[in-house]
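Team,

Forwarding the record for the chain on the shared tracking sheet. I've put the sequence and predicted structure together so nobody has to dig through attachments.
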Amino acid sequence: MRQKISTRCGIEPLQVNKMGQPGGKPRRRHFDSAVKPGWDIMAAVLSLAPGSRLNQAPGNSGFVAVTHFPHYSIVIPAFNESARIPATLEEVVACVRRQGWDAEVIVVNDGSTDRTADVVREFARTAPEVRLLENPGNRGKGYSVRSGLLQALGEIVMFTDADLSAPMEEAERLFAAIAAGADIAIGSRWLEKGRQTHRQPLYRQFFGRCFNAVTRAVMGLPFADTQCGFKAFTRAAAQTVFQLQTIERWGFDPEILFIAIKCGYRVDEVPVSWAHDERSRMSYLKDGMKMLEEIATIRWNALTGRYNKHTEPIRRASLEKR
């Protein structure tokens, strides 16, 4: 089965693997490392949690026994989150089990200097849904989200912030939009303001709306909220958009939406419940200025054809043994 993707982004049709029949004997599959330069470790290096559906097959170095791939992948970028990541994982895993989602939960450790990685590993011992990925140092939220989504195994992949400002159950609203035909579904705090249970301070609202207005004017994005850290993608859309992404810190959200529209993807904005977390690390003055600079970078990338580059899908696995 082939799915055609807009050639304006230089994308070839993506191959969708044919899975074995449910209940059959698990097949041996290997990770394919023939991927885009700079991301060649994505399909090969998976920090798998003990007890997960993917585990090293005894006596078959480089191969794993796979019963099936998860339908959903939930990515959580984390930097120095040792204090709140246990509660976050408890809630996410509880939601996954309560909703009956066939899902994996990926925590991307962004060079934390605290015990974030150790805490996630300890949690994963009793939660096979959870696995940890490590960045090579502190690279930023945009890098972390890109790393996690490109290494995700699900057919629908999403990311959420570690503070769970949008309750995990709200992901059903994103999944429903994708089921209805969207390629990408983005959470919005502003489409239905009454869904905000704890609103931001006025100064944060002011700066956020100003940034959004600039984004809409300069980049032509039609969305009420580009910055909400609650977005879901079909696997095909994520594979295309995130390989073309260049912004690695806070300003990556407008870039991925700009790329998505340029590539002809359908993006639905979905109102979600949301509560502001006072522990947010973003500085609207310092980071806001950097984000304005990154908007200029995005426009320059578009003018110079950066987003027209050819990309190749990162295959999860091959059905056949080498």
